[in-house]
Amino acid sequence: MSSGPRDANYQGSSRFQLIKNVEASLKRLNTDYIDIYHMHGFDGNTPVEEVLRSLDDLIQSGKVRYIAASNFSGWHLMKSQAVADRYGWNKYVAHQVYYSLVNREYEWELMPLGIDQKVGALVWSPLAAGMLGGKYRRNQPFPADSRVVQGGSPVPSFAVPDELLYKVVDALDEVAAETGKTVAQVAINWLLQRPTVSSIIIGARNEEQLKQNLAAVGWNLTVEQVKKLDAASEAPTIYPYWHQRGNLALNPLPKFY
């Protein structure tokens, strides 16, 4: 993010920018330290060494406890971890990722990487911008108060093929009926049972929605129910992942059950 003149020091994740913004955050929050400091995107214009050395200095100074990434690709995160390991600096402990029943690309590379590097996932948009909240159903018009009708997300950033969405929602309806939970609660609970997922960022338009989302914890789907949702949400992979899945003996999938 830019926070000043159009100068290199005021852009991205330079040392100047990181230290200045942490100091500003501490002042705004009226606190002495930040529990987890997320890098909200990879900065390809600043050397990884500069970024991680700056973050490590912030940890050593006591101003930051832990560092985390957000929306990194696999090589972004792995390069960062390798550089930190080489110099003995603190590594990223968490990764903020986009992941849901209709967007499972996180499983292709970032999840195995998270397992290997012990990086927990903090999931954003677990209901895919509201598409898994129970409002969008097969052969029914979009609700008047939905984001799609009002011109917000999910189009185009959260675009999901209609058939995939409705197939997933149909499966969610079945599991919701079996568990006595809502569609949204089932979708969130499915995420909470996935490998590497440490926490979930939930959004709510009102208090009732917040209560509904919070009720997604404290219980678990059965293995059979998880498998039903997995099957409904399965989508074609891209290269090289479809090629790797042709030899699971050498490239085993994460253990979901």
Question: Could you characterize what this model shows?
Answer:
By secondary structure, the chain is an alpha/beta fold. The protein has two domains: 7-98; 128-257, Alpha-Beta Barrel (TIM Barrel), CATH 3.20.20. It is built from ten helices and five strands. It has a five-stranded parallel sheet. α3 links the parallel β2 (64-70) and β3 (92-98). α6 (162-179) packs antiparallel against α9. The protein is globular, with a radius of gyration of 20 Å.
Helix content: 40-55%
Number of strands: 5
Largest sheet: 5 strands, parallel
Query: What is the number of independent domains?
Result: 2
CATH C-level category of the largest domain:
Alpha Beta
Shape: globular
Question: Topology of this structure?
Answer:
Blueprint: H1 15-29, E1 34-39, H2 48-60, E2 64-70, H3 74-87, E3 92-98, H4 110-117, E4 120-124, H5 147-150, H6 162-179, H7 183-192, E5 197-200, H8 207-214, H9 223-233, H10 241-244
Parallel strand pairs: 1-2, 2-3, 3-4, 4-5
Helix pairs in contact: 1-2, 2-3, 6-7, 6-9
Summarize the structure.
By secondary structure, this protein is of the alpha/beta class. The protein has helices spanning 15-29, 48-60, 74-87, 110-117, 147-150, 162-179, 183-192, 207-214, 223-233, 241-244, and strands at residues 34-39, 64-70, 92-98, 120-124, 197-200.
